[in-house]
Every structure is written in structure tokens, then in C-alpha cells.
Structure prediction request, 212 residues.
Amino acid sequence: MNPGSALNFIGNYKQMRNGKMYQRTLSREATEIFFRNFHADCGNVGLQNAIQASRLHVDYYESLGKGRKQAIRELCDGWETLVGKNHRDILTDVLHEFEEEVSKSLQDSSSTRKNRLAGYDGNVTEKVVIQKVFVRNHDVVAEALIRSNGICEFCKRPAPFDRKKDGRPYLEVHHRIPLAEGGKDKLENTLALCPNCHREAHFGEESQKYRR
Prediction:
């Protein structure tokens, strides 16, 4: 493989990893190798991103009038069927994996988390499933929950119940300035809220008060 082809493969890999359209054409065989490796290394979420990127590539290629890429379309369909999970299941996987990371973070000492956070710039990565979701830092969530000590940081009432899984008070970590609006995933931009306050922060008429 010459250096130019190698760079094209690397570029396609990066786009597939993020579920974004790539322009350089891949053979059916090469695409399947990518799918197999993404599925093995990154699970269903990684595979779905690769499939989405490939579908976007096919749409782009065909829009140029260069012919159809039916083999790649069929490959995408086959892998989605093989996985046997719909988009909602994949999104659930993402959320479950994040919850697991938060639980692990809570087992660490505060100094360990803060050491990791010292090198964290607050910029989130993205994964594309049905919609774009922000991959937040689990240490930020863990620190916010510990800071709250089981008390909603807005209404000052105790968490309404304890989690069945581990017995810790149920609070939800909210960003004062939403990530979708450019807010940073930093501890100072968070509030640990009870579910009622969290819903108000997103949907209430006075939601602006949660930004202060």
C-alpha cells in the first residue's frame, strides 16, 4: 500500500469512528473489514457509527452521478440485521456505558478524580446514533454528586429516593449552560438536581434561573 492510500484509509477510519461521511471510496471487502473491527473493538455503538458513515458516503458518491454503490448498501443492511439492535437499543448502550463509568469514578478517591480533571479541557467528544449525543466526563458527574451530599443543589431538599443498583441518592447532574449551546463539561458548570428541578431546568417557564 502506498502512503497516499494509507492516509486515505486513516482518514476514512476517523470519519467512520465519528459516524461522519467520508469521500474516498472503499471496496466492499475493505468496508466489511472496517465493520468487523469496529464491532469487535467498539461494540454496537462503534459499528452503527461506521454504518452511518458508509451510508452517507454512498449517498455522496451517487449524488455525483458516478453510479450506484448497491454492494455497500447491502453490506450496511446485512450488518444492521446481524447486530439485531435498533437505534433505541444502541442509545441505551451508550447511556448504560456512561453510567458504568460514573459508578467506577465514584469508587475512586476525590484526589484521583481531580488529578484526571486537571488535564481535562471540558471539550466533549460526540457519538452519532439516532441523534448526536455528548460523551460527558464521568469524573465531572461523580464530583458533582459527591459535592451535593445527596441534597438537590437548587431546592435544597434530599434526593427523592436511593438508587436500587447501589443505594446512593438519586440526583441528576445538569449543565447550567447546556453543552449544545457551547457550555463546558466542567464541574463549575454543573448542578446536581432532583428529577423535579431537573425537568424544570429544561422545560420550566423559569428555566433561566438554573443558569445563574
